[in-house]
């Protein structure tokens, strides 16, 4: 991969990569850091990456970097960082997008990642499998389970509201 191909990859994929990471972790600063780390890893490995496969390399790298950070943060949570909701506070949902966002946040990590890649980023099952190192069958199962959960969750909210 040449320097020009690297620069083209930055221009072409940085926005999509950022959106993918941001939808998963919902923190702009962390998302920016993960995208930056992904491009740094690409730069360090630029001679070994095929320019035709740079998109898959970037998304796979970002995915694994994000998972590593999530796991690391789970181990470093302190009790004083946990905030309790105020009593009497109700969740009044007026926007389906807000309900869906909350439901997606409740999904297990793997299900959330595959659903975001499929439904938000538009990847097919094979591409998702390559990015996440899952088989195509596993990807389909995780997406199915996630959609069943989302359907039940949204249905239960609408029944209450």
From TrEMBL:
GO BP terms, alphabetized: DNA-templated transcription initiation
Keyword Acyltransferase belongs to the record: no
Domain of life where this protein originates: Bacteria
Cross-referenced CDD domains: Sigma70_r4 (cd06171)
A GO molecular-function descriptor: sigma factor activity
Domain RNA polymerase sigma-70 region: residue ranges: 10-74
InterPro entries reported for this sequence: RNA_pol_sigma-70-like (IPR039425), RNA_pol_sigma-70_dom (IPR014284), RNA_pol_sigma70_r2 (IPR007627), RNA_pol_sigma70_r4_t2 (IPR013249), RNA_pol_sigma_r2 (IPR013325), RNA_pol_sigma_r3/r4-like (IPR013324), WH-like_DNA-bd_sf (IPR036388)
Keywords: DNA-binding, Sigma factor, Transcription, Transcription regulation
Residues annotated as domain RNA polymerase sigma factor 70 region 4 type: 99-150
Family membership: Belongs to the sigma-70 factor family. ECF subfamily.
The protein, known as: RNA polymerase sigma factor
Organism: Maribellus luteus
Lineage: Bacteria, Pseudomonadati, Bacteroidota, Bacteroidia, Marinilabiliales
